Amino acid sequence: MNNITIKIIPKEEILSILPLLKTLNTTTTETILIERLLSMVNENYECVGMYDGNHLIGISGLWYMTRHYIGKSVEPDHVVIDQAYQNRGLGKKLFEWIYDYALSKGCEASELNTYVQNRKSHKFYYNEGYEIYGFHFVKILRKDQKFY
User: Fewer C-beta within 10 Å: the chain N or C terminus?
Assistant: First the structure.
């Protein structure tokens, strides 16, 4: 565990997150994930990677925005730690890095969404000091009305 490093993944290496991302997102095809990732890196998005040596073992997308109610914030998104590395305190280490990085970029807050059925993440985020302030609603505008 001494070889653990955390850094922003360069845009040109964003597709390296696909194996971990697919463990979280099982309903979206790889083709669509690739298309979306390539679009995201040209928006207000970065992705942080956690590595054991050269092996990518954790990821979190980072969205940046300024909101009238909280100021400049970072939104960690699609947070995944490789199952073989879970329950070792690495999630906490990743979030400590995210907070420090977000502060260095002038962020005043962090907010996030998590799936309702992902209770393990709820406990983690409560322990990180997050509080529930609202609900996240989604309306599919595509003609097929499917979530993917």
Answer: N
